[in-house]
Amino acid sequence: MVHKSDSDELSALRAENARIIKPLLLPEPATPRAGRPWAEHRKIINGMFWVLCSGAPWRDLPERYGSWKTVYNRFNRWSKSGVINIIFNRLLSLLDANGFIDWSATALDGSNIRALKCAAGAQKNIPISTEIMGRVALAAVLAPKSIWQQTEVASR
């Protein structure tokens, strides 16, 4: 469950920023051909920012941003067409120009990047005996599933 926090205000797109990215977006149709009226771009973008800043699943999006499905579909469509990257770059350059970005404090986290085993120097295609695999599997099954036991011993 996601609670309302200060990130709601931080993730909101201000009017002056909305004017900068408005030319990048298709005009909202005055009357839809079928279905519901087209949702306002700014409201949808605020919903995208809320999900991206909070890390919450799309389905947890608060109703004030519209339907989660609408926000997700537009994010998906704009991502595939490259519009999201252009919006991000425009807003990033605006923040940088106004001195809101401290580039000395940025960091790149590579922990999510998967490397091949051979990149770490591992040998390739070495047959492992079933006896060794059996011992490894047994050790994995018998290993404690949490550090509670070790914590209890250490706290005595």
Automatic annotation (TrEMBL):
Key word Oxidoreductase present: no
InterPro entries for this protein: IS402-like_dom, Transposase_6_like
Region forming the signal peptide: none
Domain of life: Bacteria
Domain Insertion element IS402-like: 19-87
Keywords, sorted A to Z: Plasmid
Cited NCBIfam families: transpos_IS5_3
Protein name in the entry: ISSfl1 ORF1
Originating species: Shigella sonnei (strain Ss046)
Source organism phylogeny: Bacteria, Pseudomonadati, Pseudomonadota, Gammaproteobacteria, Enterobacterales
